[in-house]
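[RESIDUES AND BACKBONE]
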Amino acid sequence: MTVASVVLAAGAGSRFTASGGEGHKLLAELDGRSVLDRVLDTVLDAEPDAVVLVAGAVALTDHARPGLTLLTNERWADGIATSLQCAVRWAADAGHDAIVVGLADQPAVTEATWRALAAAPTEPPIAVANYDGRRGNPVRLAAAVWPLLPETGDAGARALMRERPELVREIPCSGQAWDVDTVEDLERWS
């Protein structure tokens, strides 16, 4: 059984620029490294079977590194579900049994969290990180649920987890699933 880790990074990051940020939020510096590089380093350190970065609004080829597959979602403006579908198609073609999906703007998710989700039991087929009673990313999706995922929109796996709670297991995790969406978010966590 193989599990690929997926980092979704296709969005425009418009809230960051609207709040006064310069450039894309994923390229903003956080404690000496870009937000994106912090996330990628953490995911790669967790040593998954494969790591995929799904880009879209901004070319992220400068962040390529050994062990990382870079995909481009041409339909990124149609919502996060299209990036998820891009990753699912890749994982299916590569023969993976599951993916662990996280967001490129969540640099406080720990290596231990990525490992815990990758190692989660296969039944039920969805495992979601739980931080002190609150669900957050990443989410592990077994191949059995890939056909149930939305094709468009901004829900990702969230809608499926809400509609089919019997498919979901919560995995207690340390760390935090906070997002860097605005300049204030970046300053708060610097």
In short: The chain has a mean pLDDT of 95. The longest helix spans residues 80-94. The CA atoms of residues 127 and 135 lie 10 Å apart.
